[in-house]
Write a structure and sequence with these properties.
Length: 584
């Protein structure tokens, strides 16, 4: 990007790539066939990990002795607990569930024989966690992966998952005379039929009717994006428009859900002119689109149009998740090329350094990426169902087993989808080339943080970014851990205002004013200030109750000019939410 004149240039075409059919070598066919039997997981990576762990454990006699001692201690404690009649007092129990584990909250787990089952499971969980941790000589990545894998295996065997060993399910069955199991069986049969037919859950909310209802116009369209301009709701607006880049892994309207929790509506009510990118849901025809295409046809094309259409000299920008990563690339390229059109940059749960990207990294290694490339080579994209499995396993208790217990054992099948659940069911695909480049350049090689990521043939550096930066991390984010998001402090030459809010990757961001039980910490670190570790920052940050949105709106206003009269809305190409968001 070299300034406003860049709008006159045609995007450079991506280098020619082999077609999906040409990519299907015999090696790939074999690996793809094997991986399909393991639900898209690389069997070679799994065997390598198991061998590394077992061989190092076999040559660690001190660790083996410690394991034997722990097993004896747990067994003795459990026998004593059972012999005492499984007393309900917390202090008499050998072990307690970890914070956030809601599987054993029902009062039936405090009574025999279910209390004995719960304690036996929790003690086994503690034992195997120790058995897969801190093995001398074991590669750290394999250490963490084995601990994670063992936890997944044990989660599947939890007594809460089975009718005979779940006191809540037993009680419900007796009270309802089995009607819960009848409803659960029908739900199981329906889910099985949908899986066989390849059908996905249908969103309960209608796009443009129930969600994505903020009034606006699609004012620009290319092969990859529709740019939505939202109607102002105040007579005066800030002269700097705000461009939002959502993640293309899901539909854009998470930031415009129901009217009461729409970030778009909140921002327009604060006097900002809001533009939003709506990404196309790609299919096999877009298999050759790469990261460069997303940069050219996404933020670059949108920014060129906004500046041209509004006459604004500066534009605020915000990127959510993958959109924030792409925005940081764009900002670094613009800084390198002397393009000063950005007024600020906001990163919402967006990573720029992937060296500590959390448990998701356990799925990303050379073998696993190769398997995904084998799968994508045939179909031209990665389907949502092939992505969601990994995300669900990061929180398998909440997203897999708890759902199955409530639906199939307790018969709770009538709970309606809320707007966030409906959005989550409205899935998208990822072009083969883009997804491969993203995994390799970000997760595997960490090129952006290391100053190796190329734009227009030359690497960009986040150190060139000197814009005001507003970052948001969430306390229980399993996709973009907040300490990873926090790394923008040391990567840029910027004054960074950082917010740490409660909630997860999505719920922490959708935290509208009035939302119950919300709180956050906020602190600004100037470029000239001493470096703070994430923990030191948390100790120093100011804690506040409520939503972080008002603090962001104040920050945006402080980096904006005096309000001016709102411009008249253009005719546009069509009304919001546009056409790309409706493509299944």
């Amino acid at each position: 990007m070299t300034g406003p004149s860049a709008a006159q240039k045609s995007p450079a075409p991506s280098p020619a790539r082999p077609s999906p059919a040409e990519n299907m070598t015999q090696d790939r066919v074999l690996r793809r066939t094997l991986s399909m039997q393991t639900h898209g997981t690389s069997p070679m990576a799994m065997l390598t990990m198991w061998n590394d762990w077992s061989l190092h454990l076999a040559t660690a006699p001190d660790k083996q002795l410690a394991l034997a001692q722990k097993a004896q201690k747990h067994w003795t404690a459990w026998l004593r607990f059972v012999a005492q009649g499984c007393p309900a007092e917390p202090g008499s129990r050998p072990i307690s569930p970890k914070k956030g584990d809601r599987r054993f909250g029902h009062e039936g787990w405090t009574k025999a024989p279910f209390a004995a089952m719960e304690q036996a499971f929790l003690l086994a969980e503690d034992f195997f966690d120790y058995a897969t941790s801190d093995i001398p000589g074991l590669a750290p990545s394999h250490d963490q992966a084995m601990t994670f894998l063992m936890r997944q295996m044990l989660d599947a065997m939890a007594p809460s998952n089975y009718l005979a060993t779940n006191p809540e399910a037993v009680t419900r069955t007796l009270e309802s005379k089995g009607r819960n199991l009848q409803r659960g069986s029908l739900a199981l049969l329906e889910d099985w039929r949908s899986a066989v037919k390849g059908q996905k859950p249908r969103p309960a909310k209608r796009v443009g009717k129930d969600v994505a209802t903020a009034p606006g116009k699609v004012v620009f369209r290319n092969d990859l994006i529709e740019l939505i301009r939202y109607a102002p709701t105040t007579k005066k607006v800030r002269p700097e428009p705000l461009l939002i880049l959502p993640a293309w892994i899901m539909k854009y309207y998470i930031l415009d859900l129901s009217p009461e929790n729409s970030m778009v509506r909140y921002l327009t009510a604060q006097g900002f002119t809001v533009f939003m990118i709506s990404w196309r849901n790609p299919d096999a025809a877009q298999a050759g689109l790469g990261m460069a295409d997303y940069l050219e046809q996404g933020p670059k094309a949108a920014l060129d149009h906004i500046v041209s259409a509004t006459g604004a000299a500066k534009v605020h920008t915000a990127g959510y998740c993958l959109g924030g990563t792409l925005l940081s690339i764009a900002a670094a390229a613009m800084a390198r090329d002397g393009d000063d059109r950005l007024a600020s940059m906001t990163l919402l749960t967006a990573q720029t350094d992937f060296s500590e990207a959390g448990e998701l990294m356990l799925f990303i290694n050379e073998s696993q990426v190769s398997v995904l490339e084998d799968i994508m080579a045939r179909q031209g994209y990665l389907d949502s169902s092939q992505m969601m499995g990994a995300f669900q396993m990061l929180r398998s208790n909440d997203l897999v087993w708890s759902r199955m217990v409530r639906a199939y054992l307790l018969g709770e099948t009538d709970a309606p989808m809320n707007d966030l659940m409906s959005w989550n069911a409205d899935t998208t695909r990822m072009p083969a080339r883009m997804h491969s480049e993203y995994l390799r350049q970000m997760f595997l090689n960490n090129d952006l943080a290391c100053g190796r990521y190329p734009v227009d043939g030359h690497p960009v550096s986040l150190r060139d970014i000197r814009l005001p930066v507003f970052g948001v991390g969430t306390e229980s984010d399993h996709i973009a851990p907040w300490k990873s998001v926090f790394k923008i402090h040391s990567l840029s030459h910027a004054d960074v205002t950082f917010v740490l809010t409660n909630g997860g990757h999505n719920a922490g961001v959708i935290s509208e004013p009035g939302h119950k039980r919300r709180h956050f910490r906020i602190h600004t670190t100037r470029d000239k200030d001493i470096t703070l570790s994430p923990d030191d920052w948390r100790d120093r940050a100011q804690e506040k109750d409520g939503s972080w949105w008002p603090s962001w709106a104040v920050w945006l206003a402080e980096h904006s000019g005096p309000p001016v009269t709102a411009q008249k809305m253009p005719a546009g190409l069509c009304d919001a939410p546009g056409t790309y968001v409706l493509k299944e």
